[in-house]
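seq as requested:
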Amino acid sequence: MTEQAREVQGGGTWGSREAAAEWRRGAAARLQAFGPATEMMLGLAQVAEGSRVLDVGAGAGDSTLLAAQRVGSRGRVLATDVSASMLEVAAELARQAGLTNVDTRVVDAQRLDLAPDSFDAAVSRNCLMLIPDYRQALTSIRRVLKPGGRFASPAPERFGEFRLAATGALEDAYRTAGFREISIHAVPTRRRFPSLGEAIQYARGPLPLRELLARLSRAEQEQAWAEIERVLAQFVGPQGFDSPCELLIGVGTK
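struct tokens:
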């Protein structure tokens, strides 16, 4: 196993309290960029009143809370992640929203220690492509779904370690794990920030890019960030930073 894989499994930068705090501060930006696609993901996974739902790589609970609202008091959502700090934020936000149907558990998606055939649906937003062995994760997710249960996961635009953006990659991963009725949906969206500086600040947050750059020397890191800023500057206009991107939502049935 590579050093990077070990860090991701253990939470790495993602597992720190600093990362959880940064992720919480970025909630509004994520809602603007990913909100519609998240709702589409939940719909494609057939998350409905009374469903028991698994949220894999739930982070601070963006999709968990939306799923919990959909399933209502008769349903339940289990948020899982390798980061206890992220899940603490998710649990707190659920309490603040008055949601009593959310549970959290620190668990590696590659080895889901959960009962088989126990969830009506599973979702994973912006996580699957970051798991070292995402094929094993898909197999684990399929195992805990009830027969006929559906799994949906958006794979964002190619950036950092977003490995599943290549044509056919997400579909092949689902098929290899044994899912059927596979479909891939492209959803255009935009990333907007008031300024280039805030876009860079977001990019410097708890994202795969920072994990990758941590392996460079300080001089190489500064050079990389200067190049990133130069490239992103092309998306700055009178209204601030505004860049197009595309999300891919993969759906499969057990």
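The two ends are 29 Å apart (CA to CA).
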